Amino acid sequence: MPWRGVRRLGTVPFVSAEDQATQPAGTRICRADELDEGRSIKFRLTDAERTLDCFAVRFAGVAHGYVNECRHVAMTLDWVENQFFTEDGTHLLCPTHGAWYLPDTGECIAGPPCGKSLHRVPLVERDGDLFALPPQWN
Question: Cys-Cys link to 106, which of 40, 118, 119, 135 (CB 3.0-4.6 A)?
Fold first, then answer.
């Protein structure tokens, strides 16, 4: 039973027993306890069309995943390797354009493209590991 031990992370709903057979296995990112509060980890997802640079952060005790691409211009958010948070740890930052995103929703609240959100990558925890599912294109 591949989805045994799944619990909710971010806005990803709990996977019911009926849905377990139809859920993809996902891409393993790391051990869940390796993603500390206020930290990030980069990873890649491959779908039918391309390979995507992505990242996961832990904010307020919850893991959130996003495609590593500013919604203003298609540039990565980590100008400094694997550094996504503002200095005070309250927002995700695109240093190229000064866009500030909420870590728990991905919504841009300052700078271009205010009002748009990062593309979410659903995360699930299974047997102590953190897995990423295909992105949600919004």
Answer: 118
